[in-house]
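Standup notes, structure subgroup. Blocker cleared on the 2-oxoglutaric acid input:
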Amino acid sequence: MSIAKRIKRLKLVHWLYNLRHFKALKHNRKAYRKYGIHKPLFASISSKDFPDKTSKAWLDLEDSAAAAPLKKAFSSFTPDIQAKIKNWSAKGYLIIEGLLKDDEVDAINAEIAGLQQSGKIKFTNGNKLMFANRISSLIQSITTHPQIKSILDFLLNKNVVPFQTINFINGSEQRAHSDSIHMTTYPLGYLIAAWIALEDITPDNGPLFYYPGSHKLPFLLNSDYNNTSSLLTLGNKKYSDYEDVLEDVLNENHFEAKTFLAKKGDVLIWHANLVHGGAPILNKALTRKSMVIHYYADDVIKYHEITERPSLLKEH
Ligand SMILES: O=C(O)CCC(=O)C(=O)O
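Run returned:
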């Protein structure tokens, strides 16, 4: 293991980083109190600190087909959206065609191109343009798009807050994963994402893929791939170890992937535990412009299971 990797395994390094960003950890304070977590906000936190590993989101405890229409806010949605919400518990995702208009999408693409040209945003973690919402009021305004937000708030029955945006120019080719290992909540089930096609997506440009119904699988967390931490060090498993275990689970359960062959402006909303990724790019000359927004419910504990780091979230 390289020296850099060894250093990253030391929890002390993370605690110091967290202390430097203490203000952005305050969002967890109320929830720590509520769920009886007696740790400083800058300390490491993981599923080891919590008593249970199942979702507590209302549409995981109840079936949206029966429960959703009983809520007053349900009547504010169109019949088309109502039907999609009713399928949420069974499928773990929903698709809204043409949610963003062409000119809105064109404005996003122009904004991202401008941010890239001016050097304000650069690729990190492979080919990701992260957190454009922090530097662009236009991208920030998309994260609070009233139609998207009203659906997400309804699905979680809580106020959701955007945690991050990721823009892609090309497909991610990311292996299958669940966001709950990256953006974990306690109680579980309180992360939700909206993926927006910023151009037409074809089988050739590396579409998003997802496994309908996979959100009902047990949440796969550190202990499920032996990524065991100690008081002072993080677990020593590689991320690919997590991906391998998840792939085995999908195969054992005979899940079948679907690809999202979206039209520009279509939006796919997925559940915290829906397994998804980026399909291979068959034609490397093609772009696959898209933007994903990950949201947390605002009153839960929010953290990164693998590195046991509490999420950094600006005051809202
Ligand atoms: O857009 C993709 O190809 C994958 C995105 C993804 O996995 C995510 O945002 O969690």
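Discussed briefly. The mean pLDDT is 97.
Next: hand off to the docking folks.
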